[in-house]
Amino acid sequence: MNYLAFDLGASSGKLFLGGVDGGRLRLREVHRFENGPVALARHLYWDFFAIHRNLCEGIRIACAEAGGPIASLGIDSFSNDFCLIGRDGALLTPMRCYRDDRTARAREAIFQKCPPRRLYTLSGNQVALFNTAMQLAAMREENDRSLDSGATLLLLPDLLCALLTGDVSGEYTISSVTQLFDFAADTWHAELLKAFGIPAELLPPVCHPGSPRGVIRPETGLPAIPVVTVCEHDTASAFLAAPLTGDAAIISSGTWSLVGTETPAPVITEYGFAHNVANEGGLPGHHRLLRNVMGSWLLQELRAEYAGEGVTLSFGGLAELGAAEPPFSFLIDVDDECFFSPGDVRRKIRSRGRGAVPPERPGQFVRCICESLALKYRYSIEVLEELCGRPLREIHIVGGGSKDSFLCQLTADACGRSVHAGPADASAVGNLLVQLMAAGELESVEAGRALIRASFPIQTFAPRRGEWDAVYRCYCEHFHLK
């Protein structure tokens, strides 16, 4: 059988054709397009119309190349961003990018309505300005009347599903990271909605991964393919694709690096609040406990800045340049708020970092970013070990960052743990696993992970001795992490 997995990231979107053949998972990219924030009148948006157009184009290409019927389609994407739709299904608002600064402007007013500690206790989510709750609260502070228009809020993948099938609902894993979800009640949190002045009718009913979302409607001009609810949050899908062998840390490495582990249920404590640890939904038994780390966003920004000066650098070329530079010359806290907004990344690094030799050459910037990421990974893993009360003896890196051998080796060295890297298209693989389970071709996540190990090369990086322990102690002291 053939299945389609649409995976949308902050820098690109991809549609894959997949299935199981001869005891191995088959996955082939059939369509790819660039994605990114669009600046307009001092605000940041997503070009949702281009995203939708590329999804439809990818479906047409896949159907032409499949050589047989398509069993189902699943959609996953990054989280938190949304449109409001009217009763007739029309879009009432554009889709703002989570990096837009409207939430920063309203920060103090928002936290007066619900202080950060209370917000964390109720939602279990990290306290972060990019969350859906913060965006809606900022809209309320700006007296945006669209919140009271009888509209329905749909997060990005739910909106794509609605346009294809007419089904208006919200998927569990991506709903769980909005900072508006009640894990205990398995629905939207009444106290948080009231605190921020968000009408309860704005939020759709919640469905769980594996449930049907209907069939693509004829008026779309596309074949009548069933749409299946997958783990729509791309990190939830990526975590499913980590071929675990026991207690382990998982790093879903892309524009963001999500450093986490799986737990049976949420873990919401004062320690978790103090270290801003996020609780995020997954399939039953695969709840995610994690910390957001800035990820390859900094490398993307570096490439873009050099490109603006006429210097073209590939990610592979950046890694080679970084590997050629001496270690530990300059370090940054990759999660410094100054790095959240786009632009001027080299100046920010030089002004906010610590070290004897501020970077000047591209390779020096790369070395600084990658060593700093590896050290922040170690810090995040130690926080997770303390919170969940068990050691995380190995690390699985999945997603696009698993192809960065330089960063993978630095991570092994900094953390003193073996790193297992792959698969690279982890979100699409996890998306496909849920569709296979819904169709009865897989009996469990564990069976799916065994299939992944048999289907994709997993590269292992052993930790090397060095100065990392001493550097880590200084890093934590300099950036007040302990």
From TrEMBL:
SUPFAM superfamilies: Actin-like ATPase domain
Gene3D superfamilies the record matches: 3.30.420.40
CDD domains per UniProt: ASKHA_NBD_FGGY_RhaB-like
Family label: Belongs to the FGGY kinase family.
GO MF annotations, alphabetized: ATP binding; glycerol kinase activity; rhamnulokinase activity
Gene source species: Feifania hominis
Pfam families associated with the record: FGGY_C, FGGY_N
Domain Carbohydrate kinase FGGY N-terminal: residue ranges: 3-240
Keywords: ATP-binding, Disulfide bond, Kinase, Nucleotide-binding, Rhamnose metabolism, Transferase
GO BP terms, alphabetized: glycerol metabolic process; rhamnose catabolic process
UniProt-recorded name of the protein: Rhamnulokinase
Domain of life: Bacteria
Record GO cellular component, one term: cytosol
Domain Carbohydrate kinase FGGY C-terminal: 250-439
